[in-house]
Amino acid sequence: MHGWPSRVRDRDPATFREHVLGRVAWAGSVDPVPGARLLDLAGRIDWDAPGTA
To answer: What is residue 27's DSSP assignment?
Structure first.
């Protein structure tokens, strides 16, 4: 609703995308079906959009 910058909290915004994709990869290693779903959802994120922090 407010974009990904509103979810950064105490993380470095420059590496937040890699953090999220790492968590998605971990989820995919545990169970490929939800991992694929999460990867699809992460692919929809416009990481270049400034959003509202």
So the answer is: H
Residue 11: both structure tokens together: 């993380």
pLDDT value of position 40: 96
Cβ-contact 36, 24 below 8 angstroms: no
CA nearest neighbour of 4 among 50, 41, 38, 36: 50
Which positions of the chain have pLDDT values less than 50? Answer: 52-53
**What's the rounded Cα separation, in Å, for the pair 12 and 51?**
16
Distance CA 16, CA 46 (A): 13
So what's the pLDDT on residue 5? 64
Q: Looking at residue 8, what is its pLDDT?
A: 72
Are the C-beta atoms of residues 53 and 1 closer than 8 Å to each other?
no
